[in-house]
Amino acid sequence: MCDDLKALSDFIGKKKYLFGDKPSEMDCAIFGQLAQMLWQSYGNQSEKALKGFPNLCDYCERMKETIWPDWEKCTTRVKSKTNMLLSSDEIERKVYPKDTVILHQIGRGPWAPSLSPFAMKLETYLRMATK
Predict the structure, then answer these.
(1) The domain containing residue 68 runs over which residues?
(2) In total, how many domains does the chain have?
(3) pLDDT of 78
(4) Which of 24-28, 30-34, 85-89 is predicted with the least confidence, judged by mean pLDDT?
(5) CA 60 → CA 28, 30, 89, distances in Å?
(6) Which of 24, 91, 108, 124 is buried deepest, with most CB atoms within 10 A?
(7) Cβ-Cβ contacts under 8 Å for 118 (sequence gap 6 or more)
Protein backbone atom coordinates (compact mmCIF):
# COMPACT_ATOMS: atom_id res chain seq x y z
CA MET A 1 0.00 0.00 0.00
CA CYS A 2 2.79 2.44 0.86
CA ASP A 3 4.43 1.84 -2.52
CA ASP A 4 1.15 2.67 -4.26
CA LEU A 5 0.69 5.82 -2.20
CA LYS A 6 4.28 6.86 -2.92
CA ALA A 7 3.75 6.38 -6.66
CA LEU A 8 0.58 8.47 -6.53
CA SER A 9 2.29 11.10 -4.39
CA ASP A 10 5.17 11.30 -6.84
CA PHE A 11 2.77 11.56 -9.79
CA ILE A 12 0.75 14.37 -8.25
CA GLY A 13 3.82 16.13 -6.91
CA LYS A 14 2.92 19.80 -6.52
CA LYS A 15 0.02 19.74 -8.99
CA LYS A 16 -3.43 20.67 -7.71
CA TYR A 17 -5.04 17.63 -9.32
CA LEU A 18 -3.88 14.57 -11.24
CA PHE A 19 -3.78 16.29 -14.62
CA GLY A 20 -3.36 19.95 -13.76
CA ASP A 21 -5.48 22.75 -12.36
CA LYS A 22 -8.94 21.21 -12.75
CA PRO A 23 -10.30 17.96 -11.30
CA SER A 24 -11.01 15.17 -13.77
CA GLU A 25 -12.93 11.90 -13.69
CA MET A 26 -9.76 10.18 -12.51
CA ASP A 27 -9.54 12.58 -9.57
CA CYS A 28 -13.02 11.45 -8.53
CA ALA A 29 -11.91 7.81 -8.55
CA ILE A 30 -8.71 8.49 -6.62
CA PHE A 31 -10.48 10.77 -4.15
CA GLY A 32 -13.14 8.13 -3.48
CA GLN A 33 -10.45 5.73 -2.31
CA LEU A 34 -8.27 8.21 -0.46
CA ALA A 35 -11.24 9.80 1.33
CA GLN A 36 -12.07 6.43 2.86
CA MET A 37 -8.49 6.02 4.04
CA LEU A 38 -8.25 9.52 5.47
CA TRP A 39 -11.67 10.04 7.04
CA GLN A 40 -13.25 6.61 7.54
CA SER A 41 -10.23 4.59 8.65
CA TYR A 42 -9.57 6.53 11.84
CA GLY A 43 -6.49 5.23 13.59
CA ASN A 44 -5.81 2.25 11.35
CA GLN A 45 -2.85 1.52 9.08
CA SER A 46 -4.48 3.07 6.01
CA GLU A 47 -4.89 6.44 7.66
CA LYS A 48 -1.37 6.33 9.11
CA ALA A 49 0.12 5.41 5.73
CA LEU A 50 -1.75 8.17 3.90
CA LYS A 51 -0.75 10.79 6.47
CA GLY A 52 2.86 10.00 5.56
CA PHE A 53 2.21 11.79 2.24
CA PRO A 54 1.27 15.40 3.01
CA ASN A 55 0.64 16.25 -0.65
CA LEU A 56 -2.00 13.49 -0.84
CA CYS A 57 -3.69 14.79 2.31
CA ASP A 58 -3.65 18.30 0.82
CA TYR A 59 -5.08 16.86 -2.41
CA CYS A 60 -7.96 15.29 -0.45
CA GLU A 61 -8.69 18.58 1.31
CA ARG A 62 -8.63 20.40 -2.06
CA MET A 63 -11.06 17.92 -3.61
CA LYS A 64 -13.30 18.18 -0.55
CA GLU A 65 -13.34 22.00 -0.69
CA THR A 66 -13.87 22.09 -4.46
CA ILE A 67 -16.45 19.35 -4.98
CA TRP A 68 -17.95 18.90 -1.52
CA PRO A 69 -18.47 22.39 0.00
CA ASP A 70 -21.35 20.86 2.00
CA TRP A 71 -19.22 17.94 3.29
CA GLU A 72 -20.07 18.46 6.97
CA LYS A 73 -23.80 18.64 6.19
CA CYS A 74 -23.52 15.32 4.35
CA THR A 75 -22.27 13.40 7.38
CA THR A 76 -24.40 11.91 10.11
CA ARG A 77 -22.81 14.20 12.70
CA VAL A 78 -24.95 17.07 11.37
CA LYS A 79 -28.68 16.57 10.96
CA SER A 80 -29.91 18.30 7.82
CA LYS A 81 -32.13 17.71 4.83
CA THR A 82 -28.99 16.95 2.80
CA ASN A 83 -28.33 13.67 4.59
CA MET A 84 -31.91 12.53 5.12
CA LEU A 85 -32.47 9.03 3.87
CA LEU A 86 -35.57 8.13 1.90
CA SER A 87 -37.29 4.79 2.10
CA SER A 88 -37.86 2.78 -1.09
CA ASP A 89 -41.54 3.75 -0.97
CA GLU A 90 -40.69 7.46 -0.76
CA ILE A 91 -38.27 7.14 -3.69
CA GLU A 92 -40.87 5.35 -5.82
CA ARG A 93 -43.63 7.91 -5.03
CA LYS A 94 -41.53 11.00 -5.71
CA VAL A 95 -41.56 12.46 -9.23
CA TYR A 96 -38.04 13.17 -10.45
CA PRO A 97 -36.90 15.40 -13.32
CA LYS A 98 -35.71 13.68 -16.48
CA ASP A 99 -32.14 12.30 -16.29
CA THR A 100 -32.09 12.23 -12.48
CA VAL A 101 -29.60 9.77 -11.03
CA ILE A 102 -30.65 8.01 -7.83
CA LEU A 103 -27.73 6.55 -5.94
CA HIS A 104 -28.81 3.79 -3.57
CA GLN A 105 -26.11 3.39 -0.96
CA ILE A 106 -25.35 2.66 2.65
CA GLY A 107 -26.39 5.56 4.89
CA ARG A 108 -24.17 8.58 5.42
CA GLY A 109 -21.18 8.11 7.70
CA PRO A 110 -20.03 10.19 10.65
CA TRP A 111 -16.76 11.37 9.10
CA ALA A 112 -17.39 11.16 5.36
CA PRO A 113 -20.57 11.32 3.29
CA SER A 114 -20.35 7.67 2.28
CA LEU A 115 -19.03 4.48 3.79
CA SER A 116 -18.52 3.04 0.30
CA PRO A 117 -15.52 4.00 -1.86
CA PHE A 118 -17.59 3.31 -5.00
CA ALA A 119 -20.46 5.55 -3.90
CA MET A 120 -17.96 8.23 -2.86
CA LYS A 121 -16.33 8.12 -6.31
CA LEU A 122 -19.64 8.22 -8.15
CA GLU A 123 -21.16 11.02 -6.10
CA THR A 124 -17.94 13.07 -6.41
CA TYR A 125 -18.04 12.61 -10.18
CA LEU A 126 -21.72 13.58 -10.41
CA ARG A 127 -21.09 16.69 -8.33
CA MET A 128 -18.10 17.64 -10.52
CA ALA A 129 -20.00 17.01 -13.76
CA THR A 130 -22.91 19.25 -12.75
CA LYS A 131 -20.80 22.24 -11.67
Answers:
(1) 2-129
(2) 1
(3) 46
(4) 85-89
(5) 10, 9, 36
(6) 124
(7) 32
